[in-house]
Amino acid sequence: MSERPRQSALGLWNISFGFFGIQIGFALQNANMSRIFQTLSPDDPNILNKLPALWVAAPLTGLLVQPIIGHMSDRTWLGALGRRRPYFLTGAILAALSLFIMPLAPALLFAAFMLWILDASLNISMEPFRAFVGDMLPKDQHASGYAVQTAFIGAGAVVGSIFPKLLEWAGVANTAAAGTIPDTVRYAFWFGGAALLIAVVWTVVSTREYSPDEMAAFDGGHTHDQGETIRLLAARTLTSSFAWVAGGIAVLLFVYRFALQQEMYLLGGLLIAYGIASIIAIRLARAGRGASMLGHIVGDFSGMPVLMKRLALVQFFSWSALFIMWINTTAIVAQYSYGTSDTTSAAFQRAGNWVDVLFATYNGVSAVAALTLLPLLARRFGKVRTHMIGLLCGAAGYASFFFIRSPELLLISEVGIGIAWASIIAMPYAILASSLPQAKLGIYMGLFNVFIVIPQLLVSTLMGSAMKAWFPGQPIWTMAFAAGVMVLAALATLRVQEEAR
Among 144, 138, 132, 37, which residue's Cα sits nearest to residue 91? Predict the structure, then answer.
């Protein structure tokens, strides 16, 4: 065969069904971790300001895991298990165990540690799925493949988000003693672990990956010159590397001088770490010993295609807004729609379950929009303009939180957010799908996901300080930040040209 065979509807289903389970895990995490942290800290009056720091594990693990897994999966071949599927399966097993243990957390720090493990495991499974679509489908099916994947993401998120509320309706206890996680959350996490594992195993056993020889035949016998990455890395100066280090030191000094929250030291440390890693990689490349994971990751990061760099800025702003929403929605709905900040109250737990409904709503909207609205807009206006429209819908949804106090009417806000979510998880990948070299699809998808992780890390380190300084005890203002950065994301699409593919 000289071209990848076209997949049937069943084939498209099998390729992406595992993402349905992975997204159940992410949805349970996103909708309930702030609630768990607050529930385990009933006597801490500063817990709202600590939430971003407690969430820092999630973006940090993604930042480290995704490029590594992408690089490794490009170079893996385990016979019957293939290239990407070993990572699907390993991550799913670890994530299922984490989801089982999480609601048994006896204390706040244990829950924060388990969030670290859970997010790392979910990233191990998730990262290769983006490349898996490119591996398995011909180029003219990429858009369909990512649309189906987006629909499964939305459907999985609906199931994960709504399940605690369904348990409450079924009579499962939604309140518990102070400092104890309610049964609705515990049972939902256990259900999510089982569903995640079953869905990923389905994809593993129902698909067959193409062998390295078949992949080479599909690409006309041409392979990407891996040595070119190292040669370009060796030709780089150390100026930018030292600039990263200097920027990190400046952040550390700024945090110390103005006594900002200590989690901001992490941001400076990461900048310094990348600068040092870059120096090491360049020196190894110059010495002829650069063909390592570090050399390839640093080299590919610095040598990203122009289109990918421009889309990365859009992703940066988009995901900043999303992470703000995930962290703060429970506190906002509880305080402004249910009139409570008391995490031990029944009203707070009702608010937590209603947030699950809100999150299920935007995910349900995204599943429908991915298969209906977005393709229609893309044919009419192109993928880039469609993405801009979607992002502006999201900005409007965030802004509406300032004017809507009725919990039921907040469902209207989630429609705009759902359209934006559908666009964020489909359009950038559809734009990129045919522009990346097949042999490096995993590493490039992993590096692209770094621009999902970096804004989350910044929100985790900066938002707590900003809220404490400017709007203490008023979490509603985080939605102003979310709406503003989503508008910036929409404006950043003006620099993206589809013709650059």
Answer: 132
Banded model confidence at residue 427, pLDDT cuts 50, 70, 90: confident
248 and 185 housed in the same domain = no
CA 151 remoteness from chain centre: 16
Domain count, the chain: 2
Contacts of 367 (CB under 8 A, 6+ apart): 150, 151, 152, 153, 154, 155, 158, 422
Same domain, 267 and 314: no
Q: Whole-model pTM?
A: 0.79
DSSP 288: T
Handedness of CA 358, 181, 19, 114 (dihedral sign): positive
**Nearest C-alpha neighbor of 383 from the set 307, 319, 323, 321:** 307
pLDDT tens profile 276-314:
999 999 998 888 776 678 888 888 888 788 889 999 999
Contacts of 276 (CB under 8 A, 6+ apart): 241, 245
HSE value, Cβ hemisphere, 13 Å, CA-based, for 248: 18
Give the dihedral sign, CA 430/432/435/438.
negative
Alpha-carbon torsion angle 272, 452, 163, 204, nearest 10: -100
CATH number at residue 407: 1.20.1250.20
| Whether residue 138 is found in the same domain as residue 24 | yes
Domain region containing 388: 9-224+306-435+437-500
* Whether 285 and 326 share a structural domain: no
